Amino acid sequence: MTELAPNARPADLPASVSPAVSRTCLRTAWFGALACLLLALVAIPWVDRPVVNLAHAHTQGIRWIEHIAELPSPLFVLAWPTFAVAGASLIGRRQRPAWVATLWLAAGAVGVGSVLKQALKFVFGRTWPATWIHENPSYLRDGVFQFRLFGGDGAAYASFPSGHLTVMLAFATVLALRHRTLRWPCAVAVALTGFGQIAAAYHWTSDALAGAALGMAVGTAFVAAWQRWVTPRSA
Fold first, then answer.
1. DSSP 76-133
2. Residue from 38, 45, 49, 37 nearest 201 by CA
3. What average pLDDT does range 74-98 have in this prediction?
């Protein structure tokens, strides 16, 4: 296996070498996911309603905020086709281009994250901050603030966790772990998505944090599994 200098960047590597992700980076990502989950639990009783009230008074309905809230939307559509195409291009290749492997892992993480978030939405059955689909009961219109465990009957009770934050973090975590030069762009994209989702009153703060935790965990799991699978075959 080609030895990498501790501070080597992906741009300095041959195209056929997968960027090595240190255990420290993986451990940090796992802790980040856990921290987001714990913050979500804290936000439910103390942060969610004050932040939605603030958003309703100052930022809800602003068009540019609604646009940046939808930044991850293409990922929902492109995830599985990209996963299939990138995966097919890796079959039978002893030398795997790093960018193709990254794209494959990121698409897979987004796809799995999308499935998991949908299952969790059904399990928690949470009401939305605002009424926007199927005349759903909401906090801003009806004063409703509740979870209906295993009562998520479609989109009307599906606020928790945020799907947009889930897929954005799944995608960004894979890119950021495998390519250091992409960490800042990924951080900006995540921050914009989170701000947009909360400021537009699309989601509670705890929804966003829980979605971030789920996406980060799925993305980290994909990177860790790939590295564990590839390393013995490259030695």
1. HHHHHHHHHHHHHHHTT-SS--HHHHHHHHHHHHHHHHHHHHHHHHHHH-BPBSS--S
2. 49
3. 89
